Amino acid sequence: MNADTGSSTEVRESPPGFRWWHPLIGRNPKATLIRAVSIVLVCFVFFRFVALPVRVHGVSMEPTYRNGRVNLINRLSYLKSTPRRGDVVGVTFTGESVQLLKRIIALPGETFRISGGVVHIDGNPLEEPYTTLNESWTTRTEKTLGAFEYVVIGDNRSMSMNLHTWGVVDRSRIVGKAVF
Amino acid sequence: MVLFPGDEAEIREMLAELSAAASFRGSDKPLSHMANAAELAGFFTEDVEIRAKGPGGELRRVQGKVNLQQIAVSAQSMGGGLSVTFKDVLVQLGEEEGAATCRLTMIANGLSEPTPWVQILELEVTDSNRGWKVARVEAVEAVERIQ
Asked: By CA distance, what is A139's nearest residue in B?
């Protein structure tokens, strides 16, 4: 309150010891730097060695994963267990920048074929609630998988079988399981 | 900038230029198609051999730089545009000087295609008088298709 003019002007003063950079880097720049470096390190380790961020390109996993959706591949998911049927996994090419995002439908040792759009494992039809079916998908041969082989395939079977990348992959190419 | 790049750096640079040359826009004029195809063919040896699968899964074999150039012109004439990028390039220099093997992941995005075409390629490159050239290209399957 200003007594001379009678107007009510509020004067705000900075607390003692305030510097203009405090809102930006805090009162203790050294501690802030250590915090920032720690956060960067944790993020680097997490996104490099634990959960690989991926962006879905293409329509082969629709309707489960839409084009452009971001996901994470958990690299630790198969450290103590083996991939299971139904898992959506990342499959590498020559490195980890590009991966196929596909669903595992057949496991090592199993015999696999597709007939009239229906997947058969060891002769028994596989129930797949996640797919959009196409009755024209049919394989000419049966395939019995080796000890470290899996069949991976996309959920979108409404597209042509020839335009769809799917088939047998070696266990060593499976990076991890999709988180979401 | 490196004044005297090693063989591996030169090969990587050549591959980056090759991927740019393999890309084209759908709006390019026919004269540009010829020029682009000639530029692309310049990265290959005269007797280059290419064995790769097309997006439909069919195996295609191209022998010779001249044939490659003709195919490149035809592909560009079909329009649509194509963007080619090479990722995760691994270069292994050969025991004898002037030879190397490269393994890379090629991503080809056709502008009219909903899904990119991803393929592992194995390339044999040789050092000629005019720099590194691709002598052989072979497609390697990351996923073995069941027929």
From this structure: B147
Contact B69, B41 (CB under 8 A): yes
Q: What are B76-127's pLDDT values in tens digits?
A: 888 778 899 999 999 999 888 889 999 999 998 887 777 788 889 999 999 8
Kindly state the tokens that stand for B12: 């990587």
Q: With beta carbons under 8 A apart, name residues in chain A contacting B105.
A: 93-95, 97-98
> Which residues of A are known to be catalytic?
60, 102
- What confidence tens digit (pLDDT) does each residue in A130-139 have? 987 777 889 9
What's the whole-model pTM score? 0.79
Instruction: Tell me, yes or no, if B111 comes closer than 8 A to chain A by beta carbon.
Output: no
Q: Which two tokens stand for residue A127?
A: 């129930």
CA distances from B55 to A12, A106, B30, B88 (A): 69, 24, 24, 21
What pLDDT score was predicted for residue A18? 77
Taking CA B42 as the corner, what is the angle to CA B39 and CA B46, rounded to the nearest 5 degrees? Answer: 145
Distance between CA atoms of B67 and B50, rounded to whole angstroms? 10
b/e for B90-127, b at 16 or more Cβ within 10 A? Answer: ebeeeeeeebbebbbbbbbbbeeeebbbbbbbbbbbeb
Q: Which of B21, B146, B116 is nearest to A113 (CA)?
A: B146
Pairing of strands B59-63, B44-53: antiparallel
ipTM rounded to 2 decimals: 0.74
Q: CB distance A152–B143 less than 8 Å?
A: yes
